[in-house]
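Lab meeting, item 3. Inverse folding demo.
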């Protein structure tokens, strides 16, 4: 993440870029479900935050976070291919975790394809634990894993070690 990069809430003008990133970076081989219309509905939804990272006003990463009564769920998250391993994904995830904590939510849950070793390594490095698996999680034909992070205990352990 460069100092000039910025994180902001997405606007409807970002919907096409986010939907295209989902199609080419996340939903590959599964069919395109996160169409621009669906992304716009998420942007407008009162219980969903859609955030983007911009470099020189260009969207280079995004995250979608849905608030449920007892947890926050992340259905979609990506950083452009040429921009990875610069801390952008970590910055987006931290933004979501901080927002969840200030809303009084201490649990984050999400899913990833079992074959997505990069994402699984990323989440592991960010303190997420794999808590389950489903051989047919994606469209009934591709295996996935469930991940979770307890933000309250993560923050308590950090405070304890200070
Ligand atoms: C997962 C993803 C969002 C990570 O974004 P990123 O900006 O590259 O992540 P960061 O640079 O913040 O990485 C932080 C740490 O995670 C780990 N990590 C990230 N990518 C990794 C990889 N390909 N292999 C192993 N570890 C990895 C590393 O520990 C890394 O720290 P380091 O670079 O100092 O070694 C990105 O790879 C991506 O968009 N993937 C395609 C879409 C996707 O899989 N989305 C998530 C599931 S919906």
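The presenter then showed the designed sequence:
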């Amino acid at each position: 993440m460069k100092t000039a990069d910025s994180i902001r809430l997405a606007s409807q003008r970002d919907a096409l870029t986010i939907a295209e990133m989902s199609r080419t970076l996340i939903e590959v081989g599964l069919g395109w479900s996160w169409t621009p219309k669906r992304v716009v509905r998420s942007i407008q939804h009162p219980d969903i935050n859609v955030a983007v990272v911009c470099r020189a006003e260009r969207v280079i990463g995004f995250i979608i976070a849905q608030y449920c009564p007892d947890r926050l769920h992340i259905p979609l998250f990506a950083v452009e291919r040429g921009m990875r391993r610069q801390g952008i994904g970590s910055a987006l995830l931290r933004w979501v975790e901080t927002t969840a904590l200030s809303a009084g939510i201490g649990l984050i849950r999400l899913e990833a394809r079992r074959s997505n070793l990069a994402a699984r390594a990323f989440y592991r490095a960010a303190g997420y634990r794999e808590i389950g698996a489903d051989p047919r999680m994606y469209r009934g034909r591709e295996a996935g894993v469930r991940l979770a992070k307890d933000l309250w205990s993560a923050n308590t352990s950090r405070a304890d070690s200070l």
